[in-house]
Specification:
The protein is mainly α. It has 20 helices and no strands. It is globular. The two termini are 21 Å apart. The relative contact order is 0.16. It comes from Acetobacter malorum DSM 14337. Its main location: membrane. InterPro entries: H+-coupled_symporters (IPR051084), MFS (IPR011701), MFS_dom (IPR020846), MFS_trans_sf (IPR036259), Sugar_transporter_CS (IPR005829). Keywords: Cell membrane, Membrane, Symport, Transmembrane, Transmembrane helix, Transport.
């Protein structure tokens, strides 16, 4: 481990040391803004599945089959996430975190343009679905590198006593994306008639992301052009060496990411589809639920990160996951017994509190237990392999489970399984000898 720390001190030779508060916050704003926009473009697709399923597949397929095909289309994007994570992660470890983030955003811009312009099934048959599939592959590659590069960048640029708080802004960026997605969906369904939504308004949420991308891309280009965080690479351990020497940290991190993944892609990403297609609640109300849950997490997640700088991160993660697991089934049972927008909001906000306490602390902890010299690449592998296996087709699996069982409780069972895996990892982390590998100062 001494070798890794020494290599890191050489690799992170910051040419503008020390960072001033101004340059640090300017870089953070660029990172968070780009992160939020990347995740907005990625997650807005999941919020639009109920609409996309009726536009890009033949009506003869049936409602459930169209939903299954749409969730499969959503899952296509996860195949390229590990590849994007490794490629952009290696690039970030050898060159610059900021340059890797900028490259990823450029790819995202191309993907969003493809979706925005895709013709519907009535207009061009399967051509539109093929264009969306290509766009999803590009989105997956881009987002695959975003989590690792932006998380590592935020934690590394933070003052030593504020890393938990700074690291929590990675998740906060994703939550901002959820707020934007829910807000745009709510406004779209409020201001436009169902006929207008299906005719042209469904393109507006994607066009919004396409319109904002140039601004954030400019900010990131300025970040890349500055001296902040430039790396002078002298020595980096091989990928296989990093995998074999850090297998305990990697497996533990994967367990925690599993709990995070089922939360984002089922508790939050699936809520609109679940509410409208399974519980038969209104589309506008479902977007309102999404906004309410995400808004509450905007408070809880940074608070958890702030708290983790003073309390034991491992203990916060363990306690929040244990509580999360305990309340999942009762809340879902209460909702399913008498579905309503009010009950769905109460359930989502309650889950947002306990999951937000976990999400606000775990990114920084995973970053800190990984060897600094290969941190971005290893974090990308940890995150993207889990997301591919667990998250990519989670909505498809849950929809299939509901269809074959006829039970609306299927999402609860799926999420509980993922949270239980995370709790096992948190328990091991709490009582194991795994320690944080981080220099006292990096700038």
């Amino acid at each position: 481990m001494a070798f890794a720390s020494t290599a890191f001190l050489k690799d992170t030779d910051m040419t503008d040391r020390p960072h001033t508060a101004r340059t640090r916050w300017a870089a953070i704003i660029g990172s968070i803004g780009g992160n939020a926009l990347e995740w907005y473009d990625f997650t807005i697709f999941s919020y639009m599945i109920p609409i996309i399923s009726t536009l890009f597949f033949p009506k003869s397929a049936g409602s459930v089959s169209a939903i299954l095909m749409s969730t499969a289309l959503f899952g296509v994007g996860f195949f390229t996430r590990p590849l994007g994570g490794i490629c952009l992660g290696l690039y970030a470890d050898r060159r610059s975190r900021q340059e890797a983030m900028t490259l990823g955003m450029g790819l995202m811009a191309v993907a969003v343009a493809l979706i925005t312009c895709a013709p519907t099934y009535e207009q061009a048959g399967v051509t539109g679905a093929i264009m969306i599939a290509i766009a999803r592959l590009l989105q997956g590659f881009s987002v695959g590198g975003e989590f690792a590069t932006s998380t590592t960048f935020l934690v590394e640029i933070a003052p030593p006593n504020r890393r938990g708080f700074f690291g929590s802004w990675q998740i906060t960026g994703q939550i901002i994306a959820q707020v934007l997605g829910g807000s745009v969906g709510y406004l779209m369904t409020t201001w436009c008639t169902p006929e207008q939504v299906h005719a042209w308004a469904w393109r507006l949420p994607f066009a919004f992301g396409l319109f904002i991308i140039p601004l954030i891309l400019t900010i990131r280009l300025k970040m890349s052009g500055s001296a902040t965080g430039k790396r002078k690479v002298t020595q980096t351990p091989g990928m296989m060496n990093s995998l074999t020497t850090q297998w305990r940290e990697i497996l533990t991190g994967m367990g925690l990411v599993t709990a995070s993944t089922v939360s984002f892609y089922i508790i939050y990403g699936y809520v609109v589809t679940y509410a409208t297609k399974i519980l038969h609640l209104s589309l506008t109300g479902s977007y309102l639920v999404q906004m309410s849950a995400a808004a509450s997490m905007l408070i809880v997640v940074p608070f958890s990160g702030y708290l983790s700088d003073f309390l034991n991160k491992k203990l916060i993660i363990f306690a929040s996951l244990a509580t999360y697991l305990a309340i999942l089934w009762p809340l879902y049972a209460w909702l399913v017994a008498s579905p309503s927008i009010t009950r769905l909001i109460i359930m989502q906000v309650s889950l947002s509190f306990v999951s937000g306490m976990f999400l606000g602390s775990y990114c920084t902890l995973i970053t800190q237990i990984l060897s600094p010299a290969s941190r971005t690449t290893m974090l990308a592998i940890v995150n993207n392999m889990v997301v591919l296996v667990v998250g990519g087709f989670s909505q498809l699996i849950v929809t299939w489970l509901i269809s074959i069982s006829g039970k609306a409780m299927a999402p609860a069972i799926f999420v509980m399984s993922g949270v239980a895996i995370g709790l096992i990892a948190a328990t091991y982390l709490l009582f194991s000898s795994i320690s944080e590998k981080f220099p006292e100062k990096i700038s």
